TrEMBL record:
One of its GO terms (molecular function) is precorrin-2 C20-methyltransferase activity. It comes from Yoonia maritima. The keyword Methyltransferase applies. Keywords: Cobalamin biosynthesis, Methyltransferase, S-adenosyl-L-methionine, Transferase. Belongs to the precorrin methyltransferase family. It holds the Pfam family TP_methylase. InterPro entries: 4pyrrol_Mease, 4pyrrol_Methylase_sf, 4pyrrole_Mease_sub1, 4pyrrole_Mease_sub2, CobI/CbiL, CobI/CbiL/CobIJ_dom, Uropor_MeTrfase_CS. Pathway: Cofactor biosynthesis; adenosylcobalamin biosynthesis. Residues 5-210 form the Tetrapyrrole methylase domain. This is Precorrin-2/cobalt-factor-2 C20-methyltransferase. Coiled coil: none annotated. SUPFAM superfamilies: Tetrapyrrole methylase. One of its GO terms (biological process) is methylation.
């Protein structure tokens, strides 16, 4: 019998936003896997730290943050092989994923490599979008309004066109793209409708109108923008 691979969403950072199902799986896990920034810490592991048994085997995937895809793909190839070895030995593996595994989650790279050969179960998590909207006090969409999710690394022209045609907008992966995103939102005259949220739900959380946001943003930051009708109408 081969083991089961669980892709477990951890929520946006606060450990008490881990679902009960995810917490039970992590506490019982004999093997846990997670990505970490090459040579650095793992945000996913930090969120779940209090739940991981001291004698659990840990499979760490050192994923480099490079623009080229090949180094990250190699890290996921290696991680997938280690996870496959545990599954082949009949051991279940719980893979930790910040937020939700199927929403811009790194777990998708493992799912692509392993789901045709092994049983995989996904445990959804609270996404950073809903966490940031909650912390910013910003309802995102009501009735038939549309919510557009944009990655910050998109080219300036595409960001502009998509924001222009949108109602509510969430811009993820802000980080080093903050100045470009800000310039586009400013140009469209929408700065007063935008909020900036950094490290939502963590002790270091920052929530500010975009106009007051710092000049530098960490990777774990987001901009929310609503142009839709008042949801209370
Ligand atoms: C690779 S995506 C991971 C998304 C995650 N799977 C989810 O469900 O939210 C990383 C991006 O999510 C956003 N993000 C994740 N956690 C966040 C947090 N606690 N506060 C603000 N933004 C966050 C940031 O925009 C970051 O660049």
């Amino acid at each position: 019998m081969t083991g089961v691979l669980y892709g477990v969403g951890l929520g946006p950072g606060a450990p008490d936003l881990i679902t009960l199902r995810a917490a039970r799986l992590i506490e019982d896990a004999k093997v846990v896997a997670y990505p970490s920034l090459a040579g650095g810490d793992s945000f996913a592991r930090a969120i779940a730290a209090d739940l991981i048994a001291s004698d659990a085997q840990e499979i760490v995937m050192d994923v480099p943050m490079t623009v080229e895809r090949a180094p990250a793909q190699a890290a996921y190839d290696t991680g997938a092989a280690q996870i496959a070895a545990a599954l082949d030995a009949g051991r279940d593996v719980v893979c930790l994923c910040e937020g939700d595994p199927f929403f811009y989650g790194s777990f998708m790279y493992l799912y692509a490599r392993l789901s045709d050969k092994y049983q995989v179960e996904i445990v959804p998590g609270v996404t950073s979008i809903t966490a940031c909207a909650a912390r910013a006090g910003m309802p995102l969409a009501a009735r038939n309004e549309r919510l557009t999710v944009l990655p910050g690394p998109l080219p300036e022209g595409e960001l502009r066109t998509r924001i222009e045609g949108a109602e509510s907008v969430v811009i993820m992966k802000v980080g080093r793209h903050l100045a470009k995103i800000r310039a586009v939102i400013d140009d469209l005259g929408l700065t007063d409708s935008a909020m900036y949220v950094e490290r939502a739900t963590l002790p270091q959380e920052v929530v500010l109108p975009l106009a007051e946001a710092p000049e530098k943003a960490p990777y774990f930051s987001m901009i929310l923008l609503t142009k839709g009708a008042d949801p209370w109408l």
